[in-house]
Hints:
Elements: E1 6-15, E2 18-28, E3 33-37, H1 44-51, E4 59-64, H2 72-75, E5 78-81, H3 93-103, H4 108-121, H5 137-148, E6 155-159, H6 167-182, E7 186-190, H7 194-200, E8 203-208, E9 211-217, H8 218-223, H9 230-238
Parallel strand pairs: 3-7, 3-8, 5-6, 6-7
Antiparallel strand pairs: 1-2, 1-4, 8-9
Helix pairs in contact: 3-4
Amino acid sequence: MVSEPIVIENLTVRYGKSVALDGLSLKVREGEIFGFLGPNGAGKTTTIKVLLGLVYGESGTVRVHGLSPTDCGARRRIGYLPEEAAYYRFLTPLEILRFYGALFRIPRRVLNDRIADLLRLVGLAEVARRPLATFSKGMVQKVGLAQALVNDPDTLILDEPTSGLDPLSRMELRRLLLDLKSRGKTLFVSSHELSEIELICDEVAIIRSGRMVRTGRLKDIMGSASGVSLERFFIETVSGGAS
Length: 243
């Protein structure tokens, strides 16, 4: 039986009278990259906040590794990379990772070894003692990815990980995400960069106005799309042109 680290069933979320999610259901398979797509205002950010235990549903169920998202056991198994990783610019990658590692109460010897491994993984070992003020956006994003991995999570939730990156930085980040998948990590990726999603994802879900409009294996969806790109299929789907 395939394990499903993320399961959402009939989730409804309201902000006052506004419905952000309307009966949303999805499942993410272990060890895969899941692309979460939708136009602005579709409910992607709300879904991520629910998975992180920051927003509560009015109805429906949400399980992260079989637990409520607010359970400490679930949070220990999740890593999160926001669209804009916000750090003090005078800090170094080494200082940032030590700080976040301490929040998880990781023993110092274990933490030091893990930080060294993470800095090598993201290609920042040589600049680990340089302040972030000297870094490009792509480099800061790599720091964010390392920070999301500092607790050695089973599942990563990534919100627009390639937003604002130049083509080279996007390629490097894509390679990193595929490397993490090869190490057994599960990745939940919300993105508008559909060309990137098409290159890395096993399964995708497209939502509109808080509702699921299409989900399935990427190869099956593209196989039914008569050779059009994922971007074109997405546009047709959210505008009501695809079945």
